[in-house]
Amino acid sequence: MTTWPHTLDRAGITSPVLRDAYSAQRGLVARYARAEYTAVRLLLPAPLVPHVITATAFMHHSDTLIDQGPLHQRLSAQADWSARTRAALADSPDHVDPLLAALRHTTLAYPQIGPRISSYLKGGELEASWTSFATEDDFQTYVDAYALPAFMIIASLVTPPHKTDAFEAGCRTFILASQRLDFLEDLAEDLQSGRSGIPDQTLTDHGLTREGLLKRPDPVRMQSLIRHHAALIRRDLAAAAHLEGLVQIPHRPFLRALVQLQSARLAAAESHGPKLLESAPKAPLGRASLILLRAIASRSIHRRIRSTARRQP
Fold first, then answer.
1. What is the dihedral of CA 63, 65, 69, 70, to 10 degrees?
2. 20 to 30 A from 49, CA-CA: which of 133, 173, 191, 209?
3. Helix (H) or strand (E) holding 253
């Protein structure tokens, strides 16, 4: 793994203030998404790493701001953060949040990320105010308005130049699976805050209700719901596996590992079963480590093959 100071050098980040700003985002992401952070550090080209980490930190910070407290507080926080973000990206203020300073530098290095941030901020009000989805169509609308724009902030950094439509369609399939998985893992926490990311119609189809989930429902019905939800996630993850074939070769190990890490999370959620009503499953650190080790080995093999091919007369 390239050292962090050298990674910043490779990315052309030389200002001490900016180096500190990017390093702060590195610490944030390493704490809350260890497996994904490790995948970024090990599998993406060094010049891209600080920018992917900062984009991830921005999304996490934004989500945290607008996901706590009563509705009026969430909406106020969302409006304030959106205004501060837009101002930081439009101007170069003397005093700016380190996260926004790093994000501004990233948008200057990769201008394609700017419109993605704008789309994401527009969907922030929906994220701040949702409590449930009546139907599957409502969930899909949420994904298009908020979850997909959020993911595309990162994905825009590896979007292939000539397959943009196919790549974005694949990203939508991936984020459908990932968002369903988030809602499944967070079921206990969401229910305690008066929310549920599983559509009401889906609950009804399995003889359940949001209110009933708080009262320890029939485990058989709950297990049926989990199997149904997991089947949808697994289907979309299988379809999203083709993403790695669309991107440039240096980015493929990361995309492959990203999809596989979601599969490991899904297995952990399924094993947790009806206990999802009480707590989130533990992170599958063992399986995640194996996925990353295989990805590193695969990347090393491909590098040797390319190096040998270049030396051939």
1. -80
2. 173
3. helix 252-272
Residue pLDDT, tens place only, 170-182: 999 999 999 999 9
The DSSP string of 29-91 is HHHH-HHHHHHHHHHS-GGGHHHHHHHHHHHHHHHHHTSSS-HHHHHHHHHHHHHHHHHHHHS
Residue position matching structure tokens 């700017």:
114
Q: Which two tokens stand for residue 16?
A: 């001490």
pLDDT in tens, 287-297: 989 998 888 88
Which residue, among 10, 31, 127, 41, has the nearest Cα to 79 in the 3D structure? Answer: 127
Q: How many CA atoms lie within 13 A of 36 on its CB side?
A: 22
Q: How far is CA 124 from the centre of its chain?
A: 15
Answer left, alpha or beta for residue 204, where phi above 0 means left and psi between -120 and 50 means alpha: alpha
Residue 312 Cα distances to 301, 303, 305, 307, angstroms: 17, 15, 11, 9
Q: Which residues of 111-124 are buried (b: 16+ CB within 10 A; e: fewer)?
A: eebbebbebbbebb
Classify each residue of 219-250 as buried b or exposed e, where b means 16 or more C-beta atoms within 10 Å of its C-beta.
eeebeebbeebbebbbebbebbbebbebbeee
Pairwise CA distance, residues 309 & 312, whole Å = 5
Residues 6+ apart with CB under 8 A from 289: none
Residue pair 271/187 in contact (Cβ under 8 Å)? The answer is no
Per-residue pLDDT reduced to its tens digit, 124-155: 989 988 999 999 999 999 999 999 999 999 99
